[in-house]
Amino acid sequence: MANKKVPKPASALKKNRFEFDLDVDGETKTFSLPKFDFLPQKVGRFLRSTQGAPVDVFVDAIAMINSDLAALLPDLESGQIDWITEEWAAASKVTPGESEASSS
Predict the structure, then answer these.
(1) Secondary structure class of 31 (helix, strand, coil)
(2) Is 24 in a helix, a strand, or coil?
(3) Residue 85 is inside which H or E element, if any?
(4) For the whole model, what pTM was predicted?
(5) Which residues, in sequence order, are CB contacts of 47 under 8 Å at separation 6+?
(6) What phi-psi label fits residue 64: left (phi over 0), alpha (psi between -120 and 50 degrees) or beta?
(7) 3-state DSSP percent of the chain in helix, strand and coil, to 5
(8) In the predicted model, is pLDDT for residue 100 greater than 80?
């Protein structure tokens, strides 16, 4: 009898991700984050536990998901970080300060 295989995560599907371009050292790079409904459990729990917190919470969540992007965040201006977090929330159909659990 063959073992059953766990399906691939839905967060791997392009339709379930927020993608954006960022100029890095004169080169445009594309980054991708899962929409809120498809966040890993530990990130979802982290965001739910810090509802209504400032944008720093989103920066910490990004660090848990995408280390390449997280490494660039300290060099970005606050307006750029605000844009990323606001657009990520909009693509996920939640408002800043609302967790993915409260949007369902």
Answers:
(1) strand
(2) strand
(3) helix 78-91
(4) 0.78
(5) 36, 39, 57, 61, 99, 100
(6) alpha
(7) 50, 15, 35
(8) no
